[in-house]
Amino acid sequence: MTENMFRWDVDADGIVTLTMDDPGQSANTMNDTFRTSLTATVERLEAEKDSITGVVVTSAKKTFFAGGDLKQMSKAGRADAAEITARVDAMKADFRRLEQLGRPVVAAINGAALGGGYEIALACHHRVALDVKGSEIGLPEVTLGLLPGGGGVSRTVRLLGIQSALLNVLLQGQRHKPAKAKELGLVDELVDTPEAMIDAAKAWIKANPEAAQPWDVKGFKIPGGTPSNPSFAANLPAFPANLRKQLKGAPMPAPRNILAAAIEGAQVDIDTATKIETQYFVDLVTGQVSKNMTKAFFFDLQAINKGLSRPDGVPQYQAKRVAVLGAGMMGAGIAYVSARNGIEVVLKDVSVDAAEKGKAYSAKILDKAVSRGKLTREKADEVLARITPTDKAEDVAGVDLVVEAVFESPELKKKVFGEIEALVAPDALLGSNTSTLPITDLAEGVRRREDFIGLHFFSPVDKMPLLEIVVGQQTSDVALAKAFDYALQIKKTPIVVNDSRGFFTSRVIGTFLNEAVALLAEGVPAASVEQAGTQAGYPAPPLQLLDELTLTLPRKIRQETRAAIEAAGLEWPEHPAEAVIDRMIDEFDRKGRSSGAGFYEYDDEGKRTGLWPGLADAFPAAEGVPFADMQERMLFAEALETVKCFDEGVLRTVADANIGSIFGIGFPPWTGGVIQYIEGYEGGIAGFVARANELADRYGDRFRPPASLVEKAEKGEHFK
Ligand code: NAI
C-alpha cells in the first residue's frame, strides 16, 4: 500500500491538521498517491468524526499544491476517456464528502495554490492564505488548453457568480497574488506568518462549528443570477459573442468548454454540475490542443527557465550598469526594462535631445502604471532616476553591459562599438540588438570578439516576453551565460540560437508573410488572406503585420540575403511574393502604414480605415484556394523553415523553437509552437510529411519536406 501523503495531527481541541506531503516529490500533484490518500483520509475523517471538531488542510511543501499531474494527462488519448471520467468523478466524490463531513474544514494556503491546488481549497469551507512573496492563486488550466475539472468551474461559479468566475478566474486563467485573490473573494483571510495562518484557521473552526458550503444550504442562489433569471438571460448572448471576438475563430476548445460548463452547470445542482464539468474536461484532456499547449507552456518553458541552454559552470551574473546605444524605439524600450529591473542605464544617442526623448518613453509607461495603481509614484521615480540620457561616449565608462540599438547598418554598428569599447569594463558583455545582421560579421568591429553576442529584443520591448540570444562563431560560453542571466534579470524568456542571417525568428516569420502575399498573387481576395491568418490563430493578420513593418523592410532583407547567397555561388529560390511586394512599392507607391498607404488605407492619424480597394484590380481573382490550404500554407511555411533551421544548426533545442515561435513571432499558441505543430499534426510527423508533399504538388516546391524530416517520418523518430 502506498503511504498516505496527508499527515494527520490532532490537537487537544479535536482539530485535525492534514499536511499534504507527497513523499519523494518536490511538490504535491494530483497523482495516484494523492487520489488514494484522499480517499483513505476522507474515510478516516468520517469514521472518527465524533472525536473531531474541525479540519485544517495545509502543506509541507513550499507551494500549497502544484495542481494536476501534467505528465500523466499528456499521455491521455481518446480511448482513455472512460477511465479518466471514472477517476475524476471518484476524486470529486471525495471532495464532496469532505465538504459534507459536517465539520468545518479550512484550507491553510501556505504558498502557491494553482489549478488542482486551488480546487482542493475550494472544497474547504474557508480559505486562509499566507501573504508570501511568489505565492499565486488561481485556475490557469485554460492556458494549457484545459479546464479546472476538479470542481473548479462549478465551485467558482457558485462562490463568485458566473460573470466574475469567468472573467476573473476561468477564461483567462489569471494567477493572482494573495492580496488580489482576497479582493476577488478567492480567499477569505490573509495572514503574514505560518503560525498566524494555523491560528486563524483554528479560530475560524471554533467560531463556525456548523460550517457548510453555501451551495449546500437550502435556498442557495448563485450570486448575480443564472440563465434562468430574465435579466441575466438577456445578457447571455453577449458571452459567446465576446468569446468569439476574443478567439477570432482560432481552434481553441478550452474557453468554449469552460463557458459551456459554467453556464450549463449553473442551471443544475452542484453534483450534476460537477459531472457536466467532468465531461467537458475529459473532452479537452484527451484532445491534441491541450497536449500541444502543455508541452509548450509548461514543459518547454520550465526547461528554458531552468537553464536548458545556459552553459554549465559559469558563475551567476547580475548586470549592474548597462549602456544602451541608440534611444530610438528599441533602445528606449531596452532602457525601460533594464531600469525597471534595478539596472542603472546610460542611454546614449547622437544628441541629448534624442536621448531625453528615449527616457521620456519610460516616463510615459511609468506614469500609466502609477495612474492604474500598479506602481507607487515613489517607485516610479526611482526607476526613472536610474536612466541617464547622454550624447557623450565618456559617460559609458565602466559599464558591465552594452546593448546597441542604433540603425540597422553594419558600418554604423561597428563604429559605435569602436567608440566605446575602450571605455567599458574590461569584461563587459557586448550585445547588439540587430534583427537581421549576422553577429559574427558585426563582431569584427570589436577587439574582444568572445564577449560579442546578439541580444535580439522584440517590439514593443516592455510587452514582448522573448529575448533571442544569438551566439556568434567566437562568442564564449561566459558571454552566453551572462546574456542568459541578463534575460532572466529583466524578466524575459531567453532562447538561444546560433548565428545566421535572420537568426531563427526573423527568418521564420518572413516565410509566413511571404505565403500570405503569395496568396494575393494567386488572386485570393486580401480579406480572405487576413481571415485565414486570424482563424489559424495568428494574433495579427499577415497583411496588417506587413503594413506595420513597412514593405521596404522585407525587400531590403531579401536583397541583402540574395546578394549574400549569390556571392556564395548558390542559386536564389525566387518566391511568388517578391513580385507583389515590388509592385506595391514601385508601381502603387504603397509602402505600409508609416507612409500612409499599404495593403490597407489609413486616415490622417495613421488609423487603418480598411483594405485598399485597388488590390482587387492589381491582383485579379483567379482559381480559388481552399480555406484550409490557405491556413496550412502559412503554418507549414513556418514549420518547414524551422526544420531547415535545425538542419543548419541555427536552432539548438525544440523548446527554444516552440517558445521562440509563440512568444516572438506569434505562431498560434494552440499548436504548442512550430515543432510541436509538426509532432502533433494528425498522423504525427508522417502525416505532416504527406500533407507537405500534397501542398508541394499543388503550390510549389517550397513545401517539399526536407530530407531530415522525411527520415524522421520513416524511422518513426521525434525531434530531440
Ligand atoms: P530607431 O530608428 O527607432 O532608433 C535608432 C536610434 O539610433 C535613433 O534614435 C538614432 O538617433 C540612434 N543613433 C544613430 N546613430 C547613432 C550613434 N552613432 N550613436 C548613438 N545613437 C545613434 O530604430 P529601432 O527600431 O529602435 O531599431 C534599432 C535596432 O534594433 C536596429 O538594428 C533594428 O534592426 C533592431 N530591431 C528593431 C526592431 C523593431 O521592431 N523596430 C525589432 C528588433 C530589433
Automatic annotation (TrEMBL):
It catalyses: a (3S)-3-hydroxyacyl-CoA + NAD(+) = a 3-oxoacyl-CoA + NADH + H(+). The keyword Lipoprotein does not apply. Pfam families: 3HCDH, 3HCDH_N, ECH_1. Keywords: Fatty acid metabolism, Lipid degradation, Lipid metabolism, Lyase, Multifunctional enzyme, NAD, Oxidoreductase. Pathway: Lipid metabolism; fatty acid beta-oxidation; Lipid metabolism; butanoate metabolism. GO terms for molecular function: enoyl-CoA hydratase activity; long-chain (3S)-3-hydroxyacyl-CoA dehydrogenase (NAD+) activity; NAD+ binding. Signal peptide: none annotated. The keyword Lipid metabolism applies. Residues 502-602 form the 3-hydroxyacyl-CoA dehydrogenase C-terminal domain. GO terms for biological process: fatty acid beta-oxidation. Residues 322-499 form the 3-hydroxyacyl-CoA dehydrogenase NAD binding domain. Belongs to the 3-hydroxyacyl-CoA dehydrogenase family. This is 3-hydroxyacyl-CoA dehydrogenase. The lineage of its organism: Bacteria, Bacillati, Actinomycetota, Actinomycetes, Pseudonocardiales. The gene is fadB.
